[in-house]
């Protein structure tokens, strides 16, 4: 299969940054191709199947590479550099679904009461209030703002239920950044990201990463909390039909709560990013 | 529960009052398998965002918008479904004929065989391509009626019914059925 430039000339995470306790994977897959992640001293190097050296960026706690030649830099997360944040890599979780379905699920809040019951949501607090979504043309990113939701335990550091405010940002076809009110520091945002490595069109590896104002909770608990949430999501993601994300309207029926997902699909289509997508309604 | 009808993956469920329905196993919202959903009274609730569908497949509640009356166009894809003689029958289109008369039998159990329906039929000595078979009585085992459902090329579900009789005989029938499965699967391996 020949891959479209939109997918080839893009940065993807393939390993955790080498200064982390876990070593990079020796071998992994990217867009159906085998790649090797090696260490030259402290410097990560990524090699294609044919021995070619691939471009590398180490950022946001991960090693990023590309099979092509991206003309753009990898997106920045300026807020992540604020002093006092705990940076937490969570490792990879492999999911048998399209990378795009994994991102879309991350953008969705309406599932909280049903999939993350009594943690990120609970009945009868199921209503999704109006929020704002737009494609910021100047940066070519999808943004959802003023998203609010009632949560019984919004974060590891939260005591009891609160109404949490969220902002979602999609700066990259397979990555999303979530800004969320931070219980110990009103006025600041916790950052939780989802970096998705497309292994194949219907198989991916997600690398959650967090930059939090939380100096209380042990690292292991933070990671475990995030992994538990993601394993709940996986039970959904592996059971959606079709596995690929339908980009054309008609096959799936959105409501007002799905405005972020609608904008995300439209944005992917406009960029010609079809890896992991289904174009014609089956 | 999840089932299949030919190549269609199907969700079959029974409401609190006993009504059965069969739908294509895909929620119209975001494609989640409806067979993972849960029954609430007369409705089936999808596990992903909790959309609730009535027995006719029409969406009645969208929890993200509690005050919204969902438009009539939001519905699941329904199959024909019938609850008769202790068996749930499904068809992708409503057939003109009623299910066969099974005689005086009660449901025994359903088993999955790692063998295609033709192989199962051949083992009973009856002409293949019949989906209704009979196993003759042996000693304490009452005669059985077997209904075959193709699950895939080398897999089938066998729904067994037996003439009404005492518990002891039904236990024997159940063992006989397991033995029949062992022999059928062994035949497949030998072939
Ligand atoms: S996928 Fe079924 S309710 Fe959303
Ligand atoms: Fe989730």
Automatic annotation (TrEMBL), chain A:
<keyword id="KW-0223">Dioxygenase</keyword>
<keyword id="KW-0560">Oxidoreductase</keyword>
<feature type="domain" description="Vanillate O-demethylase oxygenase-like C-terminal catalytic">
    <location>
        <begin position="95"/>
        <end position="270"/>
    </location>
</feature>
<protein>
    <submittedName>
        <fullName>Aromatic ring-hydroxylating dioxygenase subunit alpha</fullName>
    </submittedName>
</protein>
<dbReference type="GO" id="GO:0051213">
    <property type="term" value="F:dioxygenase activity"/>
</dbReference>
<dbReference type="InterPro" id="IPR044043">
    <property type="entry name" value="VanA_C_cat"/>
</dbReference>
<dbReference type="InterPro" id="IPR050584">
    <property type="entry name" value="Cholesterol_7-desaturase"/>
</dbReference>
<dbReference type="Pfam" id="PF19112">
    <property type="entry name" value="VanA_C"/>
</dbReference>
